[in-house]
Structures are given as C-alpha cells and as structure tokens.
C-alpha cells in the first residue's frame, strides 16, 4: 500500500511540475488551469477509503490523452 501511495504522490507532483513547465513555455492560462484542475482531483482518489489504484491510473491516462506532453508521467507511474 505504501508503494502505491508513493507512486500516486509522485505522479501528482509530476503533474504540477508539468504545469509549471507549461507556464514557463508560455502556454495559454486556460490550458494550464485545466491541467491544474486534473492535479486537484487526483489527491481525492488517494484519500478514498477504497483502493482507487485503477481509477487513478485511468485518470492519468485521460490526462495524457488531453495533454500528450505528460506521457512521461504515466510511463513513470506504471514502472
């Protein structure tokens, strides 16, 4: 369980890192805000009393579909 939690927290951190990188690249604010909305949702999944590991992974995959530059986050999460 601790390993899953660490992987999930690292993935959230990486989404935030990508959001900051988007800001430095000058991406539109609305696009950055949308990525941060996803980042805001993710902690709720790890706080659920039930194991939401599969939902968390699926949600990350959805982020990658919308933001292909985040593929590295999902790849690292799946290791």
Taken as a percent bin, the fraction of beta residues is under 5%
Q: What is the overall silhouette?
A: elongated
Show unreliable segments. none
Q: Could you give a short account of the major beta sheet?
A: none
Mean pLDDT: 94
Residue share in helices? over 70%
Structural class: mainly alpha
Distance from first to last alpha carbon = 15 Å
Number of domains: 1
- Tell me the series of helices and strands, N- to C-terminal: HHHH
Give a count of the beta strands, DSSP E runs of length 2 or more.
0
Radius of gyration (Å): 12 Å
Tally the helices.
4
Features:
0% strand, mainly alpha, 82% helix, 79 residues, 4 helices, single chain
Q: Secondary structure elements and their pairing?
A:
Layout: H1 2-25, H2 29-47, H3 53-66, H4 71-78
Helix pairs in contact: 1-2, 1-4, 2-3, 3-4
If you had to describe this structure to a student in words, what would you say it looks like?
- The chain is mostly helical.
- The protein has one domain.
- The protein is 82% helix and 0% strand.
- The chain contains 4 helices and no strands.
- It has helices at residues 2-25, 29-47, 53-66, 71-78.
- The longest helix has 24 residues, at 2-25.
């Amino acid at each position: 369980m601790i390993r899953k939690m660490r992987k999930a927290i690292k993935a959230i951190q990486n989404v935030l890192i990508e959001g900051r990188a988007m800001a430095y690249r000058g991406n539109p604010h609305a696009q950055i805000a949308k990525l941060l909305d996803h980042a805001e949702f993710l902690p709720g999944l790890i706080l659920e009393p039930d194991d939401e590991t599969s939902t968390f992974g699926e949600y990350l995959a959805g982020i990658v579909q919308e933001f292909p530059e985040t593929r590295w986050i999902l790849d690292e999460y799946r290791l």
